[in-house]
């Protein structure tokens, strides 16, 4: 037994013992990693696909966005930095056609998107890779039809949103020439993303202020208001008796003036 231990000890003191142990350790690590990769090929494929998507987004950004937002999205004189805004902000701004825009001094308006869904996803992935930020909303999260509460959503909307978007979600004027856009016809994911990113003059409604479940209820109420029929005829923005009274006053006064002019002409 002592002879065996002495023999092993002599091998350990050999000058090639340490290099041999390192080679064995590297081979073991490589084998273990290969086996793990084979067993979990899905996530590695997802990582590769994500890298490709980020690279594609970087190329699109360089062509269409860097002239305003900077080569590395660091911002410039006419456009803000995008580092840390997250994929949700990009998906909202680009998906609603607000970006890119020609005149950055004006409020961005919703219009036909310049980029398709795949290009928008690539841009969002690239910006998200720069720094952590709110993630883009997917269809799996938008369970407002099942989990939303219309009554609760209406109450939350009137408390948090109606002062700008009006109580029916039709939009309204703000100070300094700005405005809150109408929410009619807006995709649910863009409504959700607007709440978590706070575009333009809109504040950010974090999950502590309005929970994800409450956000779904707000979306459900907006969609219910959007599909509500106008049984009285023209909605006139659904802002109540102000516009209705102004229309009746202007139209009625105009008719009375017209009748007075007609009678005066006939009396001659």
Q: How does the SSE layout of this entry go?
A:
Layout: H1 2-12, H2 17-39, H3 41-64, H4 66-69, H5 86-95, H6 117-130, H7 144-147, H8 150-160, H9 162-165, E1 172-173, E2 179-180, H10 188-197, H11 212-227, H12 241-267
Antiparallel strand pairs: 1-2
Helix pairs in contact: 3-6, 5-6, 5-10, 8-11, 10-11
Account of the 3D structure:
With 268 residues, the chain is mainly α. It has a two-stranded antiparallel ribbon. A hairpin with a 5-residue loop joins β1 and β2. α3 packs across α6, α5 crosses α10 and α8 packs across α11.
The end-to-end span amounts to: 140 Å
Query: What is the CATH level 1 assignment of the domain at 146-242?
Result: Mainly Alpha
**Share in helix:** 55-70%
Shape: elongated
> How large, in whole angstroms, is the Cα Rg?
31 Å
Largest beta-sheet details: 2 strands, antiparallel
Secondary-structure element sequence?
HHHHHHHHHEEHHH
Mean pLDDT level = 84
CATH architecture of the domain at 146-242: Orthogonal Bundle
How is the largest sheet built, in terms of strand order? 1-2
Treating each run of at least 4 consecutive H or I residues as one helix, how many helices? 12
Poorly predicted spans: 36-45
**Structural class of the helix and strand makeup?**
mainly alpha
Strand element count: 2
CATH topology of the domain at 146-242: Cytochrome Bc1 Complex, Chain D, domain 2
CATH superfamily of the domain at 146-242, called what? Cytochrome c-like domain
Q: Which strand-content bin applies to the residues? A: under 5%
């Amino acid at each position: 037994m002592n002879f065996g231990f002495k023999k092993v000890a002599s091998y350990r003191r050999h000058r090639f013992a340490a290099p041999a142990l390192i080679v064995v350790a590297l081979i073991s690590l490589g084998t273990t990693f290969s086996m793990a990769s084979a067993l979990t090929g899905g996530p590695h494929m997802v990582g590769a696909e994500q890298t490709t998507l980020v690279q594609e987004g970087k190329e699109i950004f360089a062509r269409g966005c860097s002239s305003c937002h900077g080569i590395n999205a660091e911002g410039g004189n006419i456009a803000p930095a995008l580092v840390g805004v997250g994929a949700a902000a990009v998906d909202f701004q680009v998906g609603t056609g607000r970006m890119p825009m020609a005149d950055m001094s004006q409020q961005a308006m919703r219009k036909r998107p310049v980029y398709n869904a795949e290009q928008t996803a690539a841009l969002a992935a690239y910006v998200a890779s720069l720094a952590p930020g709110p993630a883009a909303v997917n269809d799996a999260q938008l369970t407002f039809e099942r989990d939303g509460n219309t009554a609760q959503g209406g109450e939350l909307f009137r408390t948090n949103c109606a002062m700008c978007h009006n109580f029916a979600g039709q939009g309204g004027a703000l100070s300094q020439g700005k405005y809150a856009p109408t929410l009619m016809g807006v995709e649910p994911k863009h409504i959700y993303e607007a709440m978590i990113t706070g575009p333009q003059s809109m504040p950010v409604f974090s999950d502590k202020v309005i929970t994800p479940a409450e956000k779904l209820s707000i979306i459900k109420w907006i969609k219910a208001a959007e599909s509500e029929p106008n049984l009285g005829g023209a909605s006139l923005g659904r802002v109540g008796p102000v516009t209705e009274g102004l229309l009746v006053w202007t139209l009625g006064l105009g008719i009375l003036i017209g009748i007075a002019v007609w009678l005066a002409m006939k009396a001659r």
